[in-house]
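This part of the workshop introduces the protein records we will be handling. Getting from the letters to the tokens is the skill we practise here. The record below serves as our worked example for the rest of this section.

…
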Amino acid sequence: MALPGASPATQPLDGPPPSPTPMAPPPDGSFSMRGLAPSIPTGQMPPEMLTGIVSAAQSIGTMLDSFAQATPDKAGQLAMIKDLLQRYLADLVGAGAGAISPTASGPAFPGGGFDRGVAGAGTV
């Protein structure tokens, strides 16, 4: 059934809907990661994110060591890259929240309890 005023060549349901994301690269050939993740200042980075970055950097360091073993003539360049990565991590950890421990219990329940003095009778 055609919509009033629509020509037969422009039926709205004759084809698939348009893709919400472009499938081709930008016309100028550039690529940007901007907008894929929220921008968080380093000083406000959640500890979980900082822990993930530190863990990934450890893997990168291990890979750089492997590259240096495979190409000993380029080991000096890889050592500089690893040094820059360590400086980046030092700045990141110094500015951001501290890395969390996998066994950290987190903050106490705010509803009261032994530490709030509202425990029931017979408690220590």
About this structure: Residues 44-94 form one domain. The chain has two helices and no strands. The two ends are 78 Å apart (CA to CA).
